[in-house]
Amino acid sequence: MLNRLVLLLNQNYEPVSIIRAKKAIVLIFLGKAEIVERYDGIKIRSPSTEIPLPSIVRLYRYVNIHRREIPLTKKNVLKRDNYTCQYCGKRKGTMTVDHVIPKRLGGKDTWENLVCACIECNTKKGDRTPEEAGMKLLKKPAKPTYFQLLYSRITLPDEKWKQYLFLSS
Ligand SMILES: [Zn+2]
User: Could you read off the pLDDT of 71-112 as tens digits, one per residue?
Assistant: First the structure.
């Protein structure tokens, strides 16, 4: 139970990291963090006290996090899109990076113009825009946050995390 994952938020509700429940409880007892969300129905008992198992905790004081700029690389584009083809949703097989607006039309190498695509979709789309090819993107590509990229493959232990994740940093 003390190994359950807890989402640690900054004072401004921006995700900082994912920690173990044990560490979250220490932060709470030290008066450094408060419980924002709890795992339903689970309590931690000690001989003298009982507290709900936190799912999300928030720091009382804002911590400055110096994060490097995320490099725009093929690997990071695929990671941002969770290795999922952004046209057909396929997750298996070799993935490529597709220029949404093709280079011949001035499409740039940017987070907003590069998406993960399977070989079939990339070939089918060819040198056309999605509209020309009659294909639709699953979601609008955007620059990922550091947190999003770091934990892109984690299975969320609690649905409540969703509303706190994917905030811009
Ligand atoms: Zn595809």
Answer: 999 999 999 998 999 999 999 999 999 999 999 999 999 999
Domain count, the chain: 2
Is residue 17 domain-resident? yes
Q: What is the pTM of this model?
A: 0.70
> What is the 135 CA–ligand 1 centroid distance (Å)?
10
Range(s) of the domain holding residue 15 = 5-66+154-163
Residue 136 Cα, ligand 1 centroid: separation in angstroms? 11
Assigned domain for 169 exists: no
Domain for residue 103, yes or no? yes
From ligand 1's centre to the CA of 97, what distance in Å?
A: 11
Find the 86 Cα to ligand 1 centroid distance in Å.
Answer: 7
SS (H, E, C) the chain: CCCCEEEEECCCCCEEEEEEHHHHHHHHHCCCEEEEEEEEEEEEECCCCEEEEEEEEEECCCCCCCCCCCCCCHHHHHHHCCCCCCCCCCCCCCEEEEECCCHHHCCCCCCCCEEEEEHHHHHHHCCCCHHHHCCCCCCCCCCCCHHHHHCCCCCCCCHHHHHCCCCCC
Do 129 and 90 fall into the same domain? yes
In a domain, 9, yes or no: yes
Tell how far the Cα of 138 is from the centroid of ligand 1, in angstroms: 10
